[in-house]
Design goal:
Elements (H helix, E strand, L loop, with lengths): L29 E8 L2 E9 L1
Amino acid sequence: MSREDGTDVFVHFSAIQGEGFKTLEEGQAVTFDVEDSDRGPQAVNVNKA
C-alpha cells in the first residue's frame, strides 16, 4: 500500500482489522499506523475508511 506521500508500505493481511475475509481492493481508502520492521516500514492497525 502507499502513504499519502507516495512511499510504499508493506501490509500483511493479519494487520487488517475487522471480521471476515481480510482483503483490500486496489485504490481502497484505509487508515493505518506504520512501524519499522526488518524489511522496512510496515502497516499495522489497518482499517477500511
